């Protein structure tokens, strides 16, 4: 199986709010992933790209540490499960430890570890389980043939260096400068470093650094640096890794006695192509019909979601009011609204209900908002 192929269909379990975050922040992983510089035979950037594309991965298990701190205000229902919890949404914030097992695209397991328990996502063939030890609850779903063929559904956060690298490598085009960085030792293994840098300086991303196993050609660590900073804004790295195929027993799950078991049927709302977009109605609309479009290309792409002009009511209006309290009121020739600004991305919500977001400065969002006024 090529490690550059689509990842397994597990992220239907991640809340819809998570899809807004592609890269996050934090610098805690660096102290856990060794940074010694081994002596390796020279490899060009092109050779490293080919290594990634042609690598074959039959099995893997290991421990991953991921850190996220977007430099954003605390938002209602976006701050994760809190310190010590093992909530999937906590991948948006703080530092997290995960155990991962891989034995082909239809046998995967991820365990998010917390001091108060753990949350496991397990796929074994068409069976997918979500297990929360803290809640003593298991949710089971049988995925469809279409899901199994696609291997991946929307609303996915990177939970391994490989998944994060896949997202970064998707941006490699003429807008990206590719070079070779310093070699390193990650989880006891020698690794080359591939460096991606946006040529367009209006992007808030300065560099993306991918450490690649010198023998297996699998990403072992990914770091994201904001423009003009030598402090990472996102890191995800193996601290321990084994490339032997895990035993099948790792992918068999039986709820313990006394656990609550929920059987889920149908396609979860969070997985529908236009879920959460204006005009969404049971997945009937395409993103274009729902008002989703993009402006620009590459690292400076701005996502545009057109509002339907309707005022929120009831609980939805109350929740929106809580979110807006945490955002900065802004105005200009484009109109007025609220700004969410971090180290790597900005999002503008206008009072007319339009949303503009991208890995760009707020000024770029204002330009796009004015052009679409």
Automatic annotation (TrEMBL):
CDD domains: LolA
Pfam family, one: MucB_RseB
Region (Disordered): 253-293
Domain annotation MucB/RseB N-terminal: ranges: 97-245
Basic and acidic residues bias: start-end ranges: 269-288
Gene3D superfamilies tied to this protein: Lipoprotein localisation LolA/LolB/LppX (2.50.20.10)
SUPFAM superfamilies registered for this protein in UniProt: Prokaryotic lipoproteins and lipoprotein localization factors
InterPro entries: LolA/LolB/LppX (IPR029046), MucB/RseB_N (IPR033434), OM_lipoprot_carrier_LolA-like (IPR004564), Sporulation_related (IPR052944)
Protein name: MucB/RseB N-terminal domain-containing protein
Lineage: Bacteria, Bacillati, Actinomycetota, Actinomycetes, Micromonosporales
């Amino acid at each position: 199986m090529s490690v550059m192929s689509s990842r397994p269909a597990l992220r239907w379990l991640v809340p819809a709010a998570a899809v807004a975050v592609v890269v996050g922040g934090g610098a805690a992983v660096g102290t856990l992933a060794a940074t010694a510089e081994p002596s390796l035979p020279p490899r060009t950037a092109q050779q490293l790209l080919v290594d990634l594309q042609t690598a074959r991965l039959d099995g893997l298990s290991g421990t991953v540490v991921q850190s996220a701190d977007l430099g954003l205000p605390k938002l209602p229902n976006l701050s994760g499960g809190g310190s010590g919890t093992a909530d999937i949404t906590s991948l948006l914030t703080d530092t997290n430890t995960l155990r991962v097992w891989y034995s082909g695209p239809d046998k995967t397991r991820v365990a998010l570890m917390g001091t108060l328990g753990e949350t496991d996502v397990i796929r074994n063939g068409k069976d997918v389980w979500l297990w929360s030890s803290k809640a003593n609850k298991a949710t089971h779903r049988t995925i469809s043939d279409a899901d199994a063929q696609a291997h991946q559904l929307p609303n996915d956060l990177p939970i391994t260096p490989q998944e994060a690298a896949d997202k970064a490598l998707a941006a490699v085009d003429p807008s990206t400068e590719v070079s070779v960085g310093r070699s390193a030792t990650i989880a006891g293994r020698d690794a080359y470093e591939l460096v991606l840098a946006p040529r367009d300086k209006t992007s808030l991303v300065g560099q993306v650094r991918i450490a690649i196993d010198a023998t297996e050609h699998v990403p072992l660590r990914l770091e994201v640096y904001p423009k003009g900073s030598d402090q990472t804004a996102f890191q995800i790295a193996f601290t321990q890794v084994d490339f032997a195929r895990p035993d099948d027993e790792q992918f068999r799950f039986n709820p313990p006695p006394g656990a609550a078991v929920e059987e889920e049927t149908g396609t979860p709302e969070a997985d529908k192509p236009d879920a959460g977009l204006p005009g969404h109605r049971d997945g009937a609309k395409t993103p274009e019909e729902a008002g989703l479009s993009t402006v620009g290309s590459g690292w400076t792409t701005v996502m545009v979601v057109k509002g339907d002009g309707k005022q929120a009511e009831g609980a939805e209006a109350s929740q929106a009011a809580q979110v807006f309290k945490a955002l900065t009121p802004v105005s200009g020739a484009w109109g007025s609204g609220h700004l969410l600004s971090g180290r790597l991305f900005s999002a503008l919500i206008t009072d007319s209900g339009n949303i503009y977001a991208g890995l760009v400065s707020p000024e770029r969002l204002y330009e796009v908002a004015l052009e679409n006024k």
